[in-house]
Task: structure prediction
Amino acid sequence: MADPIVEVRNLRKTYGPKVAVDDVSFAVQPGEIFGILGPNGAGKTTTVETLAGLRQADGGTVRVRGIDTQRDPAAVKDILGVQLQEAMLHDKITVGEALGLFAGFYSDPADPGELLDLLDLREHADRQFGKLSGGQKQRLSIALALVGNPEIAVLDELTTGLDPQARRATWDLVERVRATGVTILLVTHFMEEAERLCDRLVVIDAGRVVAAGTPQGLIDGLDDGRTVVVRFAPDDVARGRELLAELAARDAEVATAEAQGATEVAVTGTRRVLFAVVPALAAADLVPDDVRTVTRSLEDVFLAVTGRTYQPDAQPDAQPDTSTGTPLVSATTREGDRS
Result:
């Protein structure tokens, strides 16, 4: 494996009595999309701002291409491109003017015209920043992060405030940028975004890494339980609930729970729970309106390692136990081939 292009070890950052980042460690390989995922207030932005040399750490080390960004932040100016969450431009500056201005800050900038084409901004080159849509502003933010020809682009909460269509279009652009050879460090509180884009990631909660690995590896690392959700017509709800309760009584590994009012019943059991539910319905001549299996996600991983439902906008109300610096969950390989 190649040497990491970014290496963070035991990073710690406090603001008075508040511990914002607590013993965070991770390494990013060249060419990957690496995610820092967690709810708002978890310490994600503080982590990448410290990595970029914009904040001073209270402990730990941060290296980009072997350079200590805390000691010499200027040395990574041409290596690291940063799109910060709160970055704004003057309303009157045009897209083309902004790219030209930022290009002047670097010794070997990218071609602004090529960036306009890469990020679908060519037709908006003469449009003022204040007249851009949210999605267009985000595309410009990516372009400004890339204008210095960086090896690494830090994208912080890139799709916050975008509608679903604009968010997915932005995901396509991120993958297009990675295809040019740029390593991407993606900061996000959107679980779906992390699952879609990231090769590997860390999950941060209350300033601490609680899970690390590939998205699929973390999901596959959960227990083998499965859930089947059965939707009944209103006239069949009572009989369906009774049937599935009887099924639970015969198989101790199956439990039933009402979901979404009185029309759906969720049945949780082993990996073979579907093979128990469908024959039971057929034998009773009870035809449901819908039967579906529930797909596991990173939200299930978060619940497993923290004991609470993922609420992206919630501020953590307590620091976790910090007696160890190792992740509570770790997965390092893809497609469920876990070591």
Notes: The first strand starts at residue 6 and ends at 15. The radius of gyration is 24 Å. The first helix runs from residue 44 to 51. Residues 6-79+151-220 form a domain with the Rossmann fold fold (CATH 3.40.50.300).
